[in-house]
Amino acid sequence: MVAGYGATTILNSTTIEVHExxxxxxxxxxxxxxxxxxxxxxGMLPIREGKILLEGQDITHLKPLALLEKGxxxxxxxxxxxxxxSVEHNLEFGGISLKNLQETRVRMEKVYEQFPILKARAxxxxxxxxxxxxxxxxxxxAMLLEPKLLxxxxxxxxxxxxxxxxxxxxxxxLRDRGVSILMIExxxxxxxxxxxxxIVLQQGRxxxxxxxxxxxxxxxxxxxxLGGVVxx
Length: 232
Known about the structure:
alpha/beta; two-stranded antiparallel sheet; six-stranded mixed sheet; disordered C terminus
C-alpha cells in the first residue's frame, strides 16, 4: 500500500500479511512508518494505492466504525480511556457499535471474567486505575467486540517489567483463543521472543518478514535494535 500525510508519503509499496490466530510483531526504527501502517489499516488514513483485505474481502476504504463491525479492533499507543468515567461506562462506550445494550452487557461480563480486577473496579473512575489496569481496560474494551483481528500499538509503554510480562501473557492467551494480533512494540527483542511472526519496516518499506525466531537470528537485525539500518 501507499499512504501518508498531505504531500508526504510515509508508506511506499508496503505489503504485509497477518497470519490467522497468530501474534505478529512489527518492528523498525523511529519514523519507519509503524503507527502510520496501523492507522492506514484501521481506516484512519486514506490509502493512495493498493488494497487491504480481511479474510479475502476488500476493506480498503471502510471507516473505523465499519471495520469494528467487520471484526477489527484497534488499541492505539498511549492512554485511550475516559479517565473521569467509571470502568463500567468505559466498557459500555466500547460496545457502542453493537447498538444493543443488552448484548453489550453480556459481553462485558465475559470481559470481567477475563479481567477480574476490572469487575472489582467497575464503579471506580478509570483515571484512578494503575497503569497496568488501564491497559487491561483498553484491551478489554477492544475485546468486547470479539474481534478477529486486534491491532495494538506499543502496549508496554509506561508499564513496569512485571506489568509488561502480564500484558504479553494476556496477548498470548488471546492468540490461543483464536484472535489474530498485529502488534507494534518498542521492546523488540522481548516482543519477537513471544511472537509467531515478525515484520521489519524501514523508511516506510518492508525490509524483512518471516518467523519471529528467524528475524531474531538474522545476522544484521542487531543494527535495528541499535537504531541503525537493517541490511537485507
